[in-house]
Specification:
With 375 residues, the chain is of the alpha+beta class. It is 34% helix and 17% strand. The chain has twelve helices and 15 strands. The strands form three sheets. Strands 1, 4, 5, 6, 7, 8, 9, 12, 13, 14 and 15 form an eleven-stranded mixed sheet that branches. The chain has a two-stranded antiparallel ribbon with strand order 2-3. The radius of gyration is 22 Å and the shape is globular.
Length: 375
């Protein structure tokens, strides 16, 4: 797919310049590993990539362990998580972030605390009823002002009468909005001839949600310690293991080669991420890839150049004809792009733009895991 470089970059490059770039001709890739995944979905006009990627991750983990295909409900997770986030936002008197975004660790907490739900058991709400695709334009235009108003009820000095106590009734109103737009989370449901609650259904999937850990790589905290990543969508302050860059990348490679997929959270706002289905860490001035480094990652994170704005699922590795490693990644934008919803991300892009990855701890080699457990 080298023709992309001509149209996407709109540059007339010399042969020597082209030689510095990785190839995106999928017909010439050598597959190193390609782990099973469930079909690509479409988050449509919603900021729920975190929920889609998390359910894709859980689905692939179930597939790996049991060989069974499941279609898990993203909106069940979103419904529960938005209520949790709103409660926290009110407790913080509005001094936190309330938005559509989230993280894989949010979905893990929902699974632990509330369970999970198959797509077939989750009724469609008003934000999904017309085309079975999420459209949050109206939904969050209603929900966010409601939550902000509650969070600041006792801080409004312009009111003649100061609110001394916030009534718990606001949660009732909040839940009604969530249920109307996302669908009401079922308390019980039938699936496969059995009756479940969300908790018993989650327990039946064969997963141990305590097996999943978050890994990152920054120098503003000590290596081999855990810390909450200072990113605006990670409001739960869950801890991530902090490792040197080469060891974070080693974990991704080892997991894939051992048959595991990897949930990836990072930055897709850079010039090198293309809607056609590929991404590289692009140096536009020199028409080449940046060489990632620990120092460059930290500089970009501290300057807000590297942001946390998307979550996807890494499920494979390939080698192009130049010998460059690229990762096969399942996106949640429907079957778009040249590869039907799969993106090819270069190793440099992953190293440069990863904020965190979530992996099954059993995919980590023993020697490295011993170092990490001391954190």
């Amino acid at each position: 797919m080298n023709r992309y470089f001509l149209t996407a970059f709109m540059l007339v490059a010399t042969v020597s310049m082209k030689a510095q770039l990785p190839s995106f001709d999928a017909d010439k890739y050598t597959v190193i590993v390609e782990n099973p995944i469930t079909p690509v979905k479409d988050q449509n006009r919603s900021g729920t990539c975190w929920a889609y990627a998390s359910m894709a991750y859980f689905e692939s983990e179930i597939l790996r362990k049991t060989g069974r295909f499941y279609d898990l409900s993203e909106m069940f997770v979103a419904n529960k998580d938005y209520m949790d986030c709103a409660v926290y936002h009110v407790r913080m008197q509005g001094e936190s972030r309330f938005s559509e975004g989230g993280s894989v660790t949010d979905a893990l907490e929902i699974a632990r605390n509330y369970g999970l739900c198959p797509q077939s058991a989750m009724p469609l709400g008003g934000a999904l009823s017309t085309d079975s695709l999420a459209n949050f334009t109206e939904f969050f235009s209603v929900l966010k002002p409601y939550v902000e108003a509650v969070a600041k009820l006792d801080k409004d000095d312009e009111k003649d009468v100061k609110i001394e106590r916030i009534s718990p009734q606001w949660k009732v109103g909040m839940q009604q909005i969530l249920d109307l737009y996302l669908g009401a989370c079922p308390e019980t449901f039938e699936y496969g001839g059995k009756t479940y609650t969300p908790q018993t259904f989650a327990n039946s999937l064969g997963l141990d949600f305590d097996d999943y850990i978050s890994v990152t790589s920054y120098t503003h905290h000590p290596f081999y310690k855990r810390f909450p990543i200072e990113a605006p969508y990670k409001w739960r302050f869950s801890l991530s293991y902090n490792l040197p860059l080469d060891e974070m990348m080693q974990i991704i490679d080892d997991a894939l080669k051992a048959g595991y997929t990897v949930a990836w959270g990072g930055d897709v706002s850079e010039a090198g991420f293309f809607r056609e289905g590929f991404a590289l860490s692009l140096d536009m001035e020199n028409f080449r890839e940046f060489t990632p480094s620990q120092e460059r990652r930290q500089e970009r994170f501290d300057s807000h150049e590297q942001t946390y704005d998307h979550v996807m699922l890494i499920y494979g590795m390939v080698k192009d004809e130049k010998g460059n490693i690229q990762y096969k990644v399942k996106n949640s934008w429907g079957k778009t792009g040249e590869f039907g919803g799969t993106w090819y991300l270069t190793r440099n892009f992953i190293a440069d733009n990863t904020v965190y990855v979530v992996v099954n701890k059993h995919a980590i080699k023993r020697k490295l895991w011993r170092k990490m457990k001391k954190a």
